[in-house]
Amino acid sequence: MVYSLGLRILRNRAAAEDLTQDVFMQLLPQISTLASASHARHWLCRVATHRAIDQLRRRPPLPTGDDVLALVGDTEPGDPLLANRLRALIGELPPHPRAVVVLRYQEDMDPTEISELLDMPLNTVKSHLRRALEILRGQLT
What we know:
Radius of gyration: 15 Å
Distance between the termini: 32 Å
Helix content: over 70%
Shape: globular
Number of helices: 8
Strand content: under 5%
């Protein structure tokens, strides 16, 4: 899950691998404070998403390999060219909207979960989703 989030948000295998390692290294000292498996999953998802957003803010986007497109959502039915184009457009979104779109549509979280996960007001999450979808629709037409 951590690697998948990193790959979907950062769109670079090496960066996603580094992110995964960093998150699990951060988990080790915290593991005794996690009450249950669901708490651990929430913690991992939260830390991975925040770290990915931080990486996107700090440095310019790393080049994506063609293999990243093949790894992310390879089993989806439908038009593969459209799916690849959508993935590329999502990768061009700013950090927070990109994370919100990935969590909503690729990790299947609802806006309230995303709001809690990102420490972001629910209306901000909804605004990011609405604006990102407008951008994606505009780019596809």
